[in-house]
Amino acid sequence: MTPTEAAAIALQDRAVLWSVGECSASDVVDSACDALVAGLDTPGLRILAACTRAEAHYDVHDLLPPALDELGLAFPPVAGGAGEDAVARALARRMLAGELKPWELTFRIYQRYGHELPLTKRLAELDDEYAILEHIGRTVEQVNAEVTAEARRLAAHPRVPAEPTDVPS
Fold first, then answer.
1. What ranges in the chain are assigned the alpha helix state H?
2. Are 120 and 103 in contact (CB under 8 A)?
3. Which of 10, 69, 107, 169 has a CA between 20 and 30 Å from the CA of residue 22?
4. Which stretches in the chain have pLDDT values below 50?
């Protein structure tokens, strides 16, 4: 994966996580700055990256959708299949990046979707397993390994274009 691809995925993940309260508006601005450094460059991205932490809380709501659109990145509505899948995939990538522990990923997934979201059904089941380890003859390490494998499966489908589509030269 190229640095621009990674930056695009990170920006899209932060946008989705911000939309559900999993990260702050200033985290989105930080991702916009990282995207510029990685080589993505559009007028909307520059404006978003220029927000101060104080401005971010008020301005990200209006600046983020056009910046993502200029980059050809999706910003799915939070409710519904695409939005729920995007949140689950973003949380999985956070865990793989070391920002969440495996049990935190399963807890957040279970808390948000229970056993209802087909994409994350196994993670919800694994959350249940953490509570009954001694009764099922498994160790924390075994469950952590399975959570990590599920997170990798989710993260393998970022659904983000590799390069921006309409970037001016």
1. 3-19, 25-38, 43-49, 53-71, 81-96, 102-113, 121-131, 133-136, 140-155
2. no
3. 69
4. 160-169
